[in-house]
Amino acid sequence: MINPVTRIEGHAKISIYLDDRGEVSDARFHVTEFRGFEKFCEGRPFWEMPGLTARICGICPISHLLASAKTGDRLLAVQIPPAAEKLRRLMNLGQIIQSHALSFFHLSSPDLLLGWESNPIQRNVFGVMAAEPELARGGIQLRQFGQEVIKQLGGCKIHPAWAVPGGVRGSLSLAGREQIRQHLPKAKKTILETLTLFKQLLEDFQEEAHIFGNFSSLFMGLVSTDGTWEHYDGCLRMVDSGGNVIADRLDSSDYRDFIGEAVQPDSYLKSPYYKPLGYPDQTQHCRLENGLYRVGPLARLNVCDRIGTPLAETELQRFRQYGMSNSSFFYHYARLIEILTCIERIEIALDDPDLQSERLRASADVNQLEAVGVGEAPRGTLFHHYKIDETGLLTYVNLIIATGQNNLAMNRTVAQIARHYIHGSEIPEPMLNRVEAGIRAFDPCLSCSTHAAGKMPLQIQLLDADGQLLDECYR
Amino acid sequence: MSVKTLTIDNQLISAREGETVLETARNANIGIPTLCHLEGLSTVGACRLCLVEVEGVSKLLPACVTVVQEGMMIQTHTERLQHYRRMIVELLLAEGNHVCAVCVSNGNCELQDLAVEMGIDHVDLTYQFPDRKVDISHARFGIDHNRCVLCTRCIRVCDEVEGAHTWDMAGRGHTAHVISDLNQPWGEASSCTSCGKCVNACPTGALFHRGSTVGEMQHEREQLSFIMTARQQQQWVR
């Protein structure tokens, strides 16, 4: 059992089960925190929901803010002003950049740059600062850039109550536009250099690339109507591990027809699966005949036909040439490519005079009693589903979070890594950090996905076929 | 009109006969915190935040209903008063469900201002987390009982200024709450003229404009002052 799991956003532990021969039979990733946002939001006016649900998370509040505002748009049954949509898109791009930069530079780069066996005391962002000061500084500034976009639009970096049902509360000032623009060259330079470095590192991480969650599964994400990479609107697409589209133009409002939410007794994190192919039971390894799917950067790059901006498109082609699109280790690569396309998209978006428009909010009252709002959070597809009474008070809330949708894949990843490194009754040291890193590749946000609070922990327990504890590690 | 001379916080002050200690202090730029008091409405002395010490009187007296008298020696900011005021605000915070971060009145709330003024960064008392309702059945406004501090400003402004008397109080103790008409949903209260004076008078986010999002509520006190000045002094000036 690994408890607590560190350098992830949340609280978790891992149990590894051995068979009679002492080989790993299964591994379980448990999320041990619970908050219950869905329940205590009941009875509140739906207009408050963007501000309320943004408080689920301090890292990706914008994702909740936008998904909730979109759900609110649908309850009002309005089409928001074009400027409001463009501004919301701009903020989401900033959000993806800052969250991906946090995941790669602050949380994962210590493993990649300092090595799996390096001293855990140095294996953190401060260690990276000492070893690679330029890269660390660039990464921190990249995150700052993403947050600056959010601040210029919403007035603050975290939890701006800016997107509302019907539109947004403010436009982008000309001064704010220039503030964002002046950071663009440096941000682009940093991400291009990091991409070059990552591709060099890939040579050294062949083993990890092959065992860190490298298995067949479905992938789900939003794509635009012409199949381009999408982050705010569009339709859902599901592809298999060979890149074949198995479901396209899925309407998010019908998510219950194609997504089931399984509950496991040992984790507060639900396990969504693709309903038509069924829930993957414990004995099945991932094959196409079950509904295990992944979301997030890797999935978004796997589902789209093209990414839609020139530099990122070139990178996407290189990414696909590796033929490793089933490896969760490639989440890191996908994250960097997404940062690049977000920067390119911001560069283009800033020239649009609509961003200074004053027509930002459609006014209406309750016109629908049920709605679903979907967007792409940094970690994957995010669903908000509300039902309200005639006056606008919530009677039902369901939130399906990206990390939850990766739960089954994270379990499989932990099992795959454990099988590779554990042979016997002890937990070898190199395995410990690799299991964490395997989970970290998904950049799980457990506070979001269980809507849970807590600090960051790791505990691993190794249990024999009779359930007896053989070894245990804490950090 | 005779003049009364008194001392507030060691400052010699002249006041008109019949003035309250609160009016006199405010005229002399001495701030005394209040919550239930609103200029132009009758005073009820309910919140007890304006309690002051008067020499020779063993009890603390509410400044909003205490009339000035010749030779009064008043202290408005002693350690004891500040302790009590802080406790009153803490009690209000613990008694309701006040979550500033997601409140429509965040940044525009008298309770929040008082808490900031008194340096309340935490509450030592046990939060009660009462199960209270939200009523947004009215076409223009909403009431969230979670944020109500029972100051009765809405009841008084509706009765004394608008003359509708839509609002009243029901229940006792911790079950006390504001009701519209005969405890009907606000949207069904036939006496309500939808004037919005109660919303403008509310010190917190308990009464709000329907559709308000976090921090969006504005209490248009100037509009209320305009109406009250017009009624009481026959002056239609802004």
TrEMBL record, chain B:
PROSITE patterns reported for this sequence: 2FE2S_FER_2 (PS51085), 4FE4S_FER_1 (PS00198), 4FE4S_FER_2 (PS51379), 4FE4S_HC3 (PS51839)
Family matches, as SUPFAM superfamilies: 2Fe-2S ferredoxin-like (SSF54292), 4Fe-4S ferredoxins (SSF54862)
Chief location: membrane
Location of the protein in the cell: Membrane
Residues annotated as domain 2Fe-2S ferredoxin-type: 1-80
Molecular function in Gene Ontology: 2 iron, 2 sulfur cluster binding; 4 iron, 4 sulfur cluster binding; metal ion binding; oxidoreductase activity
Keywords, ordered alphabetically: 2Fe-2S, 4Fe-4S, Iron, Iron-sulfur, Membrane, Metal-binding, NAD, Translocase
Any one cellular-component term (Gene Ontology): membrane
Keyword Membrane attached: yes
Keyword Metal-binding: yes
Cofactor(s) in the UniProt record: [4Fe-4S] cluster; [2Fe-2S] cluster
Domain 4Fe-4S His(Cys)3-ligated-type: 80-119
All residue ranges annotated as the 4Fe-4S ferredoxin-type domain in the record: 139-170, 183-212
InterPro entries reported in the protein's UniProt record: 2Fe-2S_ferredoxin-like_sf, 2Fe-2S_ferredoxin-type, 4Fe4S_Fe-S-bd, 4Fe4S_Fe_S_CS, NAD-red_Hydgase_HoxS_gsu, NADH_UbQ_OxRdtase_ferredoxin, NADH_UbQ_OxRdtase_Gsu_4Fe4S-bd, PSI_iron-sulfur_center
Family: Belongs to the complex I 75 kDa subunit family.
NCBIfam families to which the protein is assigned, alphabetical: PRK07569.1
Name listed for the protein in its UniProt record: Bidirectional hydrogenase complex protein HoxU
Lineage of the organism: Bacteria, Bacillati, Cyanobacteriota, Cyanophyceae, Nodosilineales
Gene (name only): hoxU
